[in-house]
């Protein structure tokens, strides 16, 4: 019997290690990203970059939740942590809604941001790769938490593309309003996540 179950146990252990590696990679990337995005947002006075930096902070919280869950800490703690992430998304939505609206009304023009463009472009590629890995590993483990967080990472990559588009349009053709418009995209995502978390979608 041990000969039959051992390969499965080894395979599951390997998948769990892979899940941890994916989450720690997400944590490390977003930790660096918060610093890079803060510098880029301040220098360019970009609402979208500031919002994406806050989104990176929330992604760190989501990855931490998955690490707790993979460690077998228990469903109750994971449930509380997901609700805390929901509060974080709600705060992000309020901040971006107010700031983006203020920028549009005031007609504030963000500066060009080569750093922001470069970072969001690379981040989109990295997030898509991590999301694919989490989806495969979560499916192999039959772990809904890892699969759900993988979807959050996928949308994080899509948000990076949205912010990149806003920055590129501002730089290339002077469409200054594209930056706060990208902020509204993040508002939509944050509100949707809040609704899913607090209505039991997670």
How far is the first residue's CA from the last residue's CA? Answer: 37 Å
Q: Rough shape?
A: globular
Text of the CATH class = Mainly Alpha
Name the helicity range.
over 70%
Beta-strand content estimate: under 5%
How many helical elements?
6
List segments where confidence is low: pLDDT < 50 over at least 5 consecutive residues: none
Structural class: mainly alpha
The total number of structural domains is 1
Please compute the radius of gyration using only Cα atoms: 18 Å
Mean of residue pLDDT? 84
Main sheet record: none
Number of strands: 0
CATH architecture: Up-down Bundle
- What string, H for helix and E for strand, traces the elements in order? HHHHHH
Examine the coordinates and then state which fold CATH places here, giving the name of the CATH topology: Alpha-lytic protease prodomain-like
